[in-house]
Automatic annotation (TrEMBL):
<comment type="similarity">
    <text>Belongs to the cation transport ATPase (P-type) (TC 3.A.3) family. Type IB subfamily.</text>
</comment>
<protein>
    <submittedName>
        <fullName>Heavy metal translocating P-type ATPase</fullName>
    </submittedName>
</protein>
Length: 298
């Protein structure tokens, strides 16, 4: 017996390393005409590494002490940046104190009690903006310098005071530019980059892959708002992401696809389909074969 077209499309998607959860998913993927891509862990490999460790003077912390403090707080987090910080501490063979009362805010950072201190690690724009802690010229300059170099700056606060900044870098996935071009051709418009990261690092990376429409500094709900905006304009949106911060946007989109290997559990659960082989080329491939299947069904 021959398989119905949408079911054989599922099988074909599997061959491209995409696990689609249902035939309905394949049908929807075939109608997509706008694509929203996350940055960290989606366009990039999601295996970022720490490039800079900068303690601010006057807090009694050297590089190792700053890194150990940040890593202790990040230890329970599954965010790629958290893994980068913990790996860097391990590489220096630092001993990490136990963290208590860990909390994480998607798109923002983490908080925990380490050795009796409240430690927060995360987005400088978000952690330092309100209340004028950014008025501390030392942090502002360190953050700006790192971001100008295309890095993601991570702020470390102890009991509310900025005590240092970490610089993190991440490699583009191979084939990112080609996948962006293929998606642009398929949908008739260039994909858009939605990221919680800073505008400078995001803009630099977007230029490398041929994306001109970048929305940076977004919280999870801002990513949802962007998706809804396009839907309201009549578009059928494919959102691709890997982190818990992407899960709401994936759920709001007509099609939500998770980049698998680095993906968080919540994102994998929320997604309609998962790119298990971690290749961006799978995205245009699966849109193409879903369209073919739809033509056979309709
Ligand atoms: P993206 O949208 O590019 O995948 P995220 O939304 O996951 O990025 O993160 C946005 C920003 O929030 C990061 O650039 C970082 O500044 C901050 N952030 C989020 N989680 C963490 C964490 N666990 N440790 C440090 N910074 C974090
Ligand atoms: Mg991400």
């Amino acid at each position: 017996a021959t398989m119905p077209p949408l079911l054989s499309a599922i099988a074909n998607a599997g061959r491209h390393g995409v696990l689609a959860k249902s035939a309905v998913v394949m049908e929807r993927l075939g109608r997509v005409d706008a694509v929203a891509l996350d940055k960290t862990g989606t366009l990039t490999e999601g295996a970022p590494y720490v490039t800079d460790v900068r303690p601010l003077p006057g807090h009694g912390l050297d590089e190792d002490a700053l890194l150990a403090l940040a890593a202790a707080a990040e230890h329970p987090s599954e965010h790629p940046l958290a893994r980068a910080v913990v790996d860097a501490a391990r590489a220096r063979r630092l001993t990490l104190a136990d963290a208590a009362g860990f909390t994480s805010a998607p798109g923002l950072g983490v908080s925990a009690t380490v050795a009796g201190h409240t430690v927060r690690v995360g987005s400088p724009a978000r952690l330092l903006a309100p209340g004028g802690a950014l008025a501390d010229g030392g942090v502002r300059d360190a953050v700006r310098e790192l971001e100008d170099a295309g890095r993601t700056a991570v702020a470390v606060l102890r009991d509310g005071a900025p005590v240092g900044v970490l610089g993190v870098s991440d490699r583009l996935r191979p084939g990112a530019a080609a996948a962006v071009a293929a998606l642009a051709e398929l949908t008739g418009r260039s994909p858009v980059l939605l990221t919680g990261d800073n505008a400078r690092a995001a803009g630099r990376l977007a230029a490398e892959v041929g994306i001109t429409d970048v929305r940076a500094g977004l919280l999870p709900q801002d990513k949802v708002a962007a998706v809804r905006e396009w839907q309201d304009a009549g578009r059928t949106v494919l959102a691709v992401g890997d982190g818990v911060n992407d899960a709401p946007a994936l759920a709001a989109a007509d099609s939500g696809v998770a980049m698998g290997r680095a993906g968080s559990d919540l994102t994998l659960e929320t997604a309609d389909a998962v790119v298990v082989r971690d290749e961006l080329a799978a995205l245009p491939a699966v849109v193409r074969l879903s369209r073919r299947a739809r033509r056979l069904v309709v």
